[in-house]
Amino acid sequence: MNTQPATERAPEAQKFRKSRAAAETSRRSAFARMHNPVAPKKEHHLVLQVNTNDPAAMNLTLNNAANVTEYYRGIGEKVKIEVITFGPGLHMLRDDTSPVKARIEEMALSSPEVSFKACANTQERMQKAENKSIPIIKGADVVKSGVVRVMELQEKGWAYVKP
Fold first, then answer.
1. What integer pLDDT is reported at residue 32 of this predicted model?
2. Do the Cβ atoms of 137 and 98 come closer than 8 Å?
3. Nearest 5 degrees, angle CA 39-CA 36-CA 41?
4. Which residues contact 81 (CB under 8 A, 6 or more apart)?
5. Are 20 and 76 within one domain?
6. What pairs with residue 160 in β-bridges?
7. Alpha-carbon distance 25 to 11, whole Å?
8. Is it the case that residue 56 has pLDDT exceeding 80?
9. Chain segment 144-154, per-residue pLDDT in tens
10. I want to staple 122 with a disulfide (CB 3.0 to 4.6 A). Which of 61, 90, 133, 149 is the partner?
């Protein structure tokens, strides 16, 4: 028989009840994880920068985008990729001068994870220099500043690669 007054035993009993409740919560949580194999999938983000009018660099960028997309599809994870062009790299997305236009059009259909952005500042400078409208490939979006777009995405945690 316990000779301690009930008021002195109360804190011990309360500790025991809390400990038992915590153990039960932990057990239920582990059981739920075991029987719910669908965990939220991580979404990856990649910025690919093109700022040179070099077909080899443009093709390398498209190869990188395709390889990254294929990798994450293969392991069942999501990925978003933005190819951002500015300066001489805008030729990649120019409808009239792109050496990789066919690949971009094909990728736009087969890889919705990949998007293409053209710098409006560069487009405007090229229009003035060439005294004509500079058409952008169908499916590419125009952003005010390619450099600012890269910065904004990096500030949000996107990985950055310049092939």
1. 47
2. yes
3. 10
4. 45, 46, 47, 48, 65, 68, 69, 113, 114, 115
5. no
6. 47
7. 21
8. yes
9. 999 999 999 99
10. 90
26: tokens are 């932990």
Q: Do 79 and 69 form a contact (C-beta atoms < 8 A)?
A: yes
- As a 3-state breakdown, the chain gives helix, strand, coil percent values, each rounded to 5, of 55, 20, 30
Q: What angle is formed at CA 119 by the lines to CA 163 and CA 102, rounded to 5 degrees?
A: 60
Cβ atoms of residues 117 and 73 within 8 Å: no
Amino acid symbol at 30: A
Q: Is 115 within 8 Å of 141 (Cβ atoms)?
A: yes
Domain total in the chain: 2
SS3 66: helix
Confidence band (pLDDT; 50, 70, 90) for 31?
very low
DSSP 94: B
**CA angle at residue 90 from 66 to 118, to 5 degrees?**
75
Same domain for 75 and 26 = no
Residues composing the chain: 163
Residue 86 has pLDDT above 80, yes or no: yes
The gap between the terminal CA atoms of the chain, to the nearest Å, is 79
Query: 1 lies in a domain?
Result: no
Q: Name the residue range of residue 29's domain.
A: 7-38
